[in-house]
UniProtKB/TrEMBL annotation:
SMART domains: DAGKa, DAGKc. This is Diacylglycerol kinase. Its EC number is 2.7.1.107. The lineage of its organism: Eukaryota, Viridiplantae, Streptophyta, Embryophyta, Tracheophyta. Residues 1-27 are annotated as: Disordered. Residues 92-250 form the DAGKc domain.
């Protein structure tokens, strides 16, 4: 397993907290019920004082805005250019910050929340994701500060190095922003901005894992000021991310989610050769990155049907609570709780279509692992939280860990947990934390081989984005998961 670079993205003032010492990474995570934010001792802060800690000088805000609008990091208007020597460094705020808000999240609160954030900060530091995409901010906004810093502007340099980002949205929105910040790693940049969360989604597991809470607070006006204040003070932790490559015989028609993009990698050929399988004459591949989980099986099938139902009848999607009720009801109609016909191949265990190979920590060889007969859904989990704050991996005792060859799970340890769910009743008991899921393995890399036969399609999902994957009986479809060589930086909410 590759060593994780510990110097990438570190600012000189950043204090990193390892996952094993964070309460949010263990069962002791505390969430204040009723308001959705972690239970912190709150010391009131004056609104103008908070604004002074967050707001960048006007000339920098306008320069970033113009560069993003023109899609040119050097397009700083002449009247905003600084005199030789730049501005004194003490003009830089204590914690320069920008906020991305997904107005489609959080029900009807998106527009009013945006207005509230603009009041607390500045208009130019709050970005509506329908108007400014995260990659545009990275390529032109942050690059604008770098351009000015290269000209000797110390204020721009400090703002760039101290920059923090808050994301108001669900887990998918947070992952989108983190993925775009990954461009900075690829370009070899230092001072990667850490990210905090204002939870507006349904599950909000990323938010829960870093102590930002699991729901949009009822008293949201006062909560926004508290949240921004905490974001200026929060320590920074690391988060593993995982690259997934789906390779299939060419000619297959698949409608992948937004997070999966076509790639030219010859991964399918390499995988088939390694596995001593028949090589398809041509192959096509898709790749993406996930931060929370990937799954195959009945849970992904239920999610796929639910997403299509919600798209066909958008009036059903009235908020997180309504979504969960509809989701639960819909799952009962898909045969997960009761298998109406055991002879139906689509309702049998995954071992009929799947083989799993893994690489363990510090090991370069692939090892095939057993797929339990009764398992109808397999989940690959990176975070401690899953399914709106549930803990399916469980809090395992040291003796059990030693017996199975496991280590305590953390989101920055370079390992990912593999577990199985059986019937819907088993999944319900797991999600209620009455029992643990079916533990299968911990791995540093995973390879699934899927082949059809009686099965025509498999259902997969990645961080809540499901899709239907066609399968052939002649050639295998491969799904390979490996750790991204750099880690994302997250602000702790406590």
């Amino acid at each position: 397993m590759e060593e994780t670079p510990r110097s990438v993205g570190e600012a000189s003032t950043t204090n990193f907290v390892p996952a094993e010492t964070r309460p949010s990474a263990k069962k002791d995570a505390v969430t204040m019920k009723g308001c959705g934010f972690a239970n912190l001792a709150w010391v009131g802060v004056d609104r103008e004082e908070l604004r002074g800690r967050l707001a960048m000088p006007e000339y920098l805000r306008l320069a970033m805005r113009d560069c993003i609008k023109r899609k040119d990091s050097t397009a700083v208007p002449d009247h905003l250019l600084l005199l030789p020597g730049g501005v004194a460094a003490d003009m830089a705020p204590h914690a320069p910050m920008v906020v991305f808000i997904n107005p489609k999240s959080g029900g009807r609160h998106g527009p009013v929340l945006k207005q509230r954030l603009q009041q607390l900060m500045t208009d130019e530091q709050v970005f509506d994701l329908t108007e400014v995409k995260p990659h545009e901010f990275v390529r032109y906004g942050l690059a604008c500060l770098e351009t000015l810093a290269a000209k000797g502007d110390e204020c721009a340099r400090e703002c760039r190095e101290k920059m923090r980002i808050m994301v108001a949205g669900g887990d998918g929105t947070v992952g989108w922003v983190l993925g775009c910040l990954g461009e900075l790693h690829n370009d070899g940049k230092s001072h990667i901005p850490p990210v905090g969360v204002i939870p507006l989604g349904t599950g909000n597991d990323l938010s829960r894992s870093f102590s930002w809470g699991g729901s949009f607070p009822f008293a949201w006006r006062s909560a926004m000021k508290r949240t921004l204040h905490r974001a200026t003070l929060g320590t920074v932790s690391r988060l593993d991310s995982w690259k997934i490559v789906v390779s299939m015989p060419s000619g297959e028609v698949v409608d992948p989610p937004y997070s999966l993009k076509p790639t030219t990698e010859e991964t399918a050929l390499d995988q088939a050769l390694d596995a001593d399988k028949d090589v398809p004459p041509k192959a096509k591949s898709y790749e993406g990155v996930f931060y929370n989980y990937f799954s195959i099986g009945m849970d992904a099938q239920v999610a796929y049907g639910f997403h299509h139902l919600r798209n066909e009848k958008p009036y059903l999607a009235q908020g997180p609570v309504t979504n969960k009720l509809i989701y639960s009801s819909y799952s009962c109609t898909q045969g997960w709780f009761c298998t109406p016909c055991v002879s139906n191949p689509s309702l049998r265990g995954l071992r009929n279509i799947m083989k799993i190979h893994i690489k363990k920590a510090n090991c370069s060889e692939w090892e095939e692992i057993h797929v339990p007969k009764s398992v109808r859904s397999i989940v690959i989990l990176n975070l401690y939280n899953y399914g709106s704050g549930r803990h399916p991996w469980g809090n395992l005792r040291p003796k059990y860990l030693e017996k199975r060859g496991f280590v305590e799970a953390h989101c920055d340890d370079g390992l990912i947990e593999i577990f199985g769910l059986k019937q819907g009743w088993h999944a319900s008991f797991v999600m209620a934390e009455i029992i643990s899921a079916k533990h299968i393995a911990q791995a540093a890399a995973i390879r699934f081989e899927l082949r059809g036969g009686d099965w025509k399609n498999a259902f997969l999902q990645m961080d809540g984005e499901p899709w239907k994957q066609p399968m052939k009986s002649d050639y295998s479809t491969f799904v390979e998961i490996k750790r991204v060589p750099f880690q994302s930086l997250m602000i702790n909410g406590e």
